[in-house]
Design brief:
It holds the Pfam family NMT1_3. There is one protein chain. With 328 residues, the protein is α/β, with parallel strands linked by helices. The chain folds into two domains: 2-120 and 255-324, Periplasmic binding protein-like II (D-Maltodextrin-Binding Protein, domain 2, 3-Layer(aba) Sandwich); 123-252, Periplasmic binding protein-like II (D-Maltodextrin-Binding Protein, domain 2, 3-Layer(aba) Sandwich), CATH 3.40.190.10. 38% of the residues lie in helices and 20% in strands. The protein is built from eleven helices and ten strands. Strands 1, 2, 3, 4, 5, 6, 7, 8, 9 and 10 form a ten-stranded mixed sheet that branches. The longest helix has 19 residues, at 2-20. The radius of gyration is 20 Å and the shape is globular. It starts with a helix and ends in a 12-residue tail after the last helix.
Length: 328
């Protein structure tokens, strides 16, 4: 632990100097940038807009978060260069590289490169306490379930998970804030979230009404782990006032992505801003507790942007092979 702490201090000191250095080569840097996030009311929007604002302020550029359909659309936007940056989960990233992204079937989106680790996305289910739904098995046949924006990580994987668990449902899509309102108004039976916790829409619901945050049973978790590219995860009891104990779940890692053709010095400096001061990132969103250098190795899918790879090699001792770095 002492070594980890010393490493964190060294990274912070090294990075602060790098950002403050007025001699950074800004050749080819854009005058403004956009970060593809997701719908308002979700973690992606809060987290992505937050780090976009930090970068814009530190580097004296115009930039911010943009509402999108989430990870699948972000892969497409960053690949084409319509957005300089974005955020994605490893599942949608793998599908996009394979050419099975539903936004552009057959197009291998190799123009999007890994930039830095964000956090794990837990999959969780929420229902009104008045519904009597306290488990996956309680969800009635034909239940109306909100799965988030079309093409999002939640919409891509949660319906398949529900089918794997034998749930019969009607699929609904929309932004998280809108789906939360529909649940409260009785228009939905369940909302199935894949988002960093705490999810703003769930936190808002807790203030306004009584909800049940539903965990997977051990058998349900095992079935999902076997069928999907996810890991075990527990949603800490402290995450929501509703929870009295940790809730069993599964999760998928998220990474920030950059268009692979952006200047190396630009991406390196952006990574420096985000990774150099974790407490500041945690102020943006508590999920950023996992936005730390040692989690670079959670990317086993995307090619690294050379600027990002340079930062992690020089500041975090990262072992990134050349064949995982774009253009090498």
């Amino acid at each position: 632990m002492k070594n980890v702490a010393l490493t964190a201090v060294a990274v912070a000191l090294t990075s602060t100097v790098a950002v403050a250095d007025g001699h950074v080569d800004r050749t080819g840097w854009p005058e403004s940038f956009t970060v593809g996030t997701a719908s308002q009311g979700g973690t992606y929007f809060a987290y992505g807009s937050g780090w976009a604002n930090l970068v814009a302020e530190e580097l004296g550029l115009s930039g911010g978060g943009e509402v999108t359909g989430g990870p699948m659309q972000n892969m497409a936007l960053v690949h084409t260069g319509d957005a300089q940056f974005g955020m994605t989960t490893m599942g949608p990233a793998a599908e996009s590289l394979a050419g099975t992204n539903p936004i552009a079937p057959g197009l291998q989106m190799t123009g999007a490169c890994a930039m830095f680790p964000m956090y794990q996305t837990p999959f969780s289910v929420t229902a009104l306490a008045s519904s009597g739904i306290t488990s996956i098995a309680d969800i009635p046949a034909g239940a109306k379930i909100g799965f988030g924006p079309a093409g999002s990580t939640s919409d891509t994987y949660f319906p398949r998970m529900m089918e794997t668990l034998g749930v019969d449902f009607e699929r609904r899509n929309g932004g998280w804030t809108d789906l939360g309102s529909q649940l409260q108004d009785g228009l939905l039976d369940v909302i199935a979230f894949a988002a960093g916790v705490p999810v703003p829409a769930v936190s808002q619901l807790e203030v306004q009404t009584d909800v049940n945050i539903i965990e997977f049973t051990e058998a349900e978790q095992a079935a999902i782990l076997e069928a999907f590219p996810v890991s075990e995860f527990n949603i800490a009891a402290s995450t929501y006032t509703t929870l009295e104990a940790d809730a069993r779940s599964v999760s998928m890692w998220n990474f920030a992505i950059a268009n692979c053709d952006l200047p190396e010095s630009f991406v390196e400096t952006v990574v420096d801003v985000v990774m150099s001061d974790n407490p500041r990132m945690v102020n943006v969103h508590s999920a950023a507790r996992s936005t730390v250098p040692e989690n670079y190795d959670k990317n086993r899918v995307l090619m690294w942007h050379p600027g990002a790879a340079k930062w992690f090699k020089e500041n975090a001792g990262a072992n990134i092979p050349d064949d995982m770095i774009h253009g090498m």
